[in-house]
Amino acid sequence: MSSASLLPPADAQPPVRHPDAPAPGEPLGAHYEHCFGCGPGQPHGLHLEARAGDGVSLTAEFTVQPAHQGAPGLAHGGVLATALDETLGSLNWLLRTIAVTGRLETDFVAPVPVGTVLHLEAEVTAVAGRKIYSRATGRIGGPEGPVAVRAEALFIEVKVDHFTEHGREQEIRAAMSDPDQIRRSRAFEVNP
Ligand SMILES: CCCCCCCCCCCCCC(=O)SCCNC(=O)CCNC(=O)[C@H](O)C(C)(C)COP(=O)(O)OP(=O)(O)OC[C@H]1O[C@@H](n2cnc3c(N)ncnc32)[C@H](O)[C@@H]1OP(=O)(O)O
Questions:
Q1: Positions of the region Disordered (predicted)?
Q2: Do 66 and 99 meet the contact criterion of CB atoms below 8 Å apart?
Q3: What is the pTM of this model?
Q4: 186 close to ligand 1 (CB < 6 Angstrom)
Q5: Longest dimension (CA), the chain
């Protein structure tokens, strides 16, 4: 059961897909080359690949590598939580909103062996002001396989200043001059 702070308030609205959101089936790509969740330049990262779904939803895959073990041969729970966090965070691109995780609640339903493809699906359920409510499920053995992990989350919309104030200047400057225009706009574009 989710905690009270993950229940949308009575005045929450259904999420609205941004008109310029990627079409259903289109890959979302990475928002930052060195992101541990999705960046191609992070050798031990998850290299999570997400695709837009209908409405404000998406699907994603992540293959558990030996570098992601906790118990021998099994994915570390924190890594699985990261996969859920990254998947849920990617939803905000469909809203064209920059947001960070405020709260993430995870259920670990079944162990996930190394070599397994985790099939994730996620959707935004409601928006209330700066608060974005979402949930995700990860299945093994195929997109229709048994549920191994699931999560509910609250993301909070932030201005780009959140990153320039708290992040390291060198990395921020490098991300702002990323030659990949889609990645640059995904990281920094804010829509009212
Ligand atoms: C360089 C590249 C840029 C990349 C850009 C893309 C980034 C994507 C990254 C993707 C990577 C994957 C994703 C990641 O890993 S993101 C990384 C992990 N997350 C963070 O680092 C966030 C750290 N936290 C903060 O910075 C602040 O606490 C934030 C910004 C979240 C809120 O502080 P702020 O001062 O702004 O706002 P507020 O305190 O007035 O709160 C506002 C409202 O929210 C409610 N609330 C707040 N927290 C919680 C909570 N825990 N449970 C329940 N409710 C909570 C609060 O009650 C209030 O509600 P209401 O009173 O209005 O009803």
A1: 1-28
A2: no
A3: 0.95
A4: no
A5: 47
